[in-house]
Specification:
Layout (H helix, E strand, L loop, with lengths): L11 H29 L3 H9 L16 H27 L5 H26 L5 H28 L4
Helix pairs in contact: 1-5, 3-4, 3-5, 4-5
Amino acid sequence: MLKAGYLSSFSTELKALTVFFLITLSIGFYLGLGFVNHTTENKAQGIIENYNGNEQDEAAETMKFKKSEHEMYNILHTHFLSLSLIFFILGLLTYGTSINSKLRKFLMIEPLISVILTFGGIYFIWTGLEWMTYVVMFSGMLMTLSYTVAAFLILNALFSSKP
């Protein structure tokens, strides 16, 4: 049975594995955020246009078309599966820190809730509920903040000298 705070007792090899896993995971996570910025400019209208198109806007620099049902299911399927696994592993690692138990629980559970809200919200935007873009933006920011804080705390625990 794992006990909270277990990371500092890892062997050097397990610490190195975990550090390089977090570095590699973070590169992928932040590249994904860069892609979101590239496709939406981190704006509500950009999110709506990314999924519902902008072909009615004659002034648009780049023509975008509404995603097909096939594209939407592919986007949602891959993001729900991959992010749930990422945040499950990150949650297990967060459990290994010696931080306040309420903060630890929040950092373990919140990103999974944000995955549901973000990608569920994207689905609802695609169906025409464009106001959901604000839910998507808020939950996406909270997911990113939680990821960043958890990764930092995990790295801090791995480099901590106290067993």
